[in-house]
Amino acid sequence: RGEGFLKTVWQRSNPVLDQKELKPDGSAELSAGSFRIKARRSSTNDGWRIRLSGTQGTKKIFDLVYNVSGVANWESSIFIAEIDPTNSFPEIIFDAFSGGAHCCSTRMIAYETGSRSWTIAEGDQRDGDRFTLEDIDGDGAAEFDEIDQSFLYAFESYAGSWAPTQIMQFRQGEMKNVTFEKQFQPFLRQDVFGMEFSANNSEGTWNSNGFLGAWVAAKSMIGEGAGAWSRMLFLYDRDNTFTKDFCKLLDNSKKECTDEENSFPKQLHQHLVETGYGDIRPY
Fold first, then answer.
1. What distance in Å separates the CA atoms of residue 269 and residue 152, rounded to the nearest whole number?
2. Contact status, residue 252 vs residue 245, Cβ threshold 8 Å
3. In whole angstroms, what is the distance from residue 157 CA to residue 278 CA?
4. CA within 20 to 30 Å of 215's CA: 24, 92, 102, 180, which one?
């Protein structure tokens, strides 16, 4: 509550060099030192079009036009950040929202290629309306700090779902999942501490299958999955029937599922194996 506060020992860094909101049929100007960006949006029948031009001093570097289709013509965010150290300039990232009460954002990244030309890469759709950047490994280039979306709706409703951290790295037009790489272990451990702190301060969370599924996965990434699995077996909600027909997903010839076939541990084990967390059950 603050009575014993002494000092801040860590806080999230902000790798964004400049950021603006880009309204429908609006424009924005951004800069990072002598690197300057002009962005202009115009509406289309199924979304919007963006024109990006970049200069360094008086030298024109690029002029790009990109159509963003299948999205709502809502306000978007555009910013400059260093996410790919293999080229000479920081990248320009902007997003587009699908619209609707609950869905997705798509991120686009303008970057300098190995041949010194510029292009725009379109990423996958992510839940929510914004993305978090953090230079997690301290190499001067930021990673995308996200969540593993496969855990949403997996064991609980959306509101009851939790998800482990997923770290994505951008290099020359390709987005790579680097979550399991060694240099990110301290960050993942910190994330587990945060999950446990939240659960300790929220009644019933330690018995929520939505939380426990994500927590076991998060613990597995720091080498503590077997212990988490054993604890989960005592805590999980045996009365939860959110995915009551789970066994039919594995074998569509089945007409009925037994309690064991449909149990949360059975579902969680299958999900962890299929999504790359491995078989962490202690034997």
1. 16
2. no
3. 24
4. 102
Which of 202-232 are b and which e, b meaning 16 or more Cβ less than 10 Å from the residue's Cβ? eeebbebbbbbbbbbbbbbbbeebeebbeeb
- Tens digit of pLDDT for each residue in 31-78? 999 999 999 999 999 899 999 999 999 999 999 999 998 888 889 999
Which neighbouring-strand residues pair with 91?
81
pLDDT at 225: 96
| Distances from the Cα of 160 to the Cα of 137, 152, 210, 215, angstroms | 31, 9, 6, 13
Q: Residue 186's CB: how many other CB atoms inside 10 A? A: 12
- CA dist 3 and 196 (Å) reads 22
First to last CA, the chain: 42
3-state secondary structure (DSSP) of residue 198: helix
Core vs surface per residue 150-164: b (16+ CB within 10 A) or e? ebbebbbeeeebbbb
How many whole angstroms separate alpha carbon 221 and alpha carbon 164?
9
Distance of alpha carbon 62 from alpha carbon 55, whole angstroms: 7
Residues contacting residue 266 through CB under 8 Å, at least 6 positions apart: 246, 247, 260
- For 93-107, 112-126, 160-174, 239-253, which range has the lowest pLDDT when averaged over its residues? 239-253
Give the separation between CA 101 and CA 32, rounded to whole angstroms.
35
- The pTM score is 0.87
Per-residue pLDDT at 252: 57
Using CA atoms, how far apart are residues 263 and 265, in angstroms rounded to an integer? 6
Q: Are 88 and 73 in contact (CB under 8 A)?
A: no
